[in-house]
Amino acid sequence: MHMSKLILQDLVEPRLMEASTQEVRVKAISAGGEMAFRLEWPDDSQNDLPGPKRFMDACAVQLPLVNETNVPAPQMGEAGKTVEISYWRADWQAVMDGRADDINAIYPNASVDHYPFEAKSLEADPNAQRDAALRYAPARTLGNRRAGPRESPVEDLIAEGPGTLTPNTRSISNGKGMRGGKGWAVVISRALPEGFSAERPSQVAFAVWEGNHGETGARKMRTGWVQLTMK
Question: Is residue 206 within 8 Å of 49, Cβ to Cβ?
């Protein structure tokens, strides 16, 4: 097990100015063309329900896209030196574990009078009903991954420096998180990075977001690069 100290992300706006999670415990294993990381960290509160002024518990694993001697900057990479990020979030895990992804899961006492796509006149025509539902869900219509329904609690991202984060066109990661008595334990698996082998070590970095501390986006606790060696 590797104990990785976490530091404030206070280099770019929005900065995190008050430290929260102090360290993350990491285990790693590889098999065939895949590798997996188990991240554990203490967290007194469980934050997995989205809503106004609510922030989610989360973690991420970052590796260089290409394994080279000169690694990218650990702060989300740099121009011409891409990093791949596998990002897990607690609310996505809750949905994958069976919580409904609808308004009543967030607000149990909410009452919906009517949705246009549930009109009686559309009940006999499933295609028209589906088209109407998409008309009132523009994010899903445009293929926005955040709109759901989710297929994994982990999102694949790439970056070439702060402010450049974008979805990865490749789907290479999966994972699962579990809440324990003292915090979170999350396993993230992904494909081996290009050029990584027993003869050619790489680097890896980690980040943790504590929702109860108002952490989201760039406001996070992070590590620098940690050497990653295959044995």
Answer: no
Per-residue pLDDT of the chain (231 residues; tens, 9 = 90+): 899 999 999 999 999 999 999 999 999 999 989 999 999 999 999 999 999 999 999 999 999 999 988 999 999 999 999 999 999 999 999 999 999 988 888 899 999 888 888 888 888 899 999 898 888 888 888 888 788 778 999 999 999 999 999 999 999 999 999 999 899 999 999 999 888 988 899 999 999 999 999 999 999 999 999 999 988
C-alpha distances out from residue 204 to 98, 131, 150, 168, 196, Å: 31, 44, 26, 18, 11
Distance between CA atoms of 81 and 65, rounded to whole angstroms?
8
- Would you call the peptide bond into 149 cis, given omega within 30 degrees of 0 as the criterion? yes
| DSSP run (H or E) holding 130 | helix 126-135
- 10 Å CB burial of residue 45 (0-12, 13-18, 19+) is exposed
8 near 221, Cβ under 8 Å? yes
Q: Is 104 helix (H, G, I), strand (E, B) or coil?
A: helix
The pair phi, psi for residue 162, each rounded to 5°, is -55, 140
Q: What is the pTM of this model?
A: 0.92
Strand partners, 173: 190
C-alpha dihedral, 107 to 113 to 116 to 118, nearest 10°? 90
Domains and CATH numbers, the chain: 2-100+152-228 (2.60.40.1190), 102-148 (no CATH)
- Strand, coil or helix: what is 132? helix
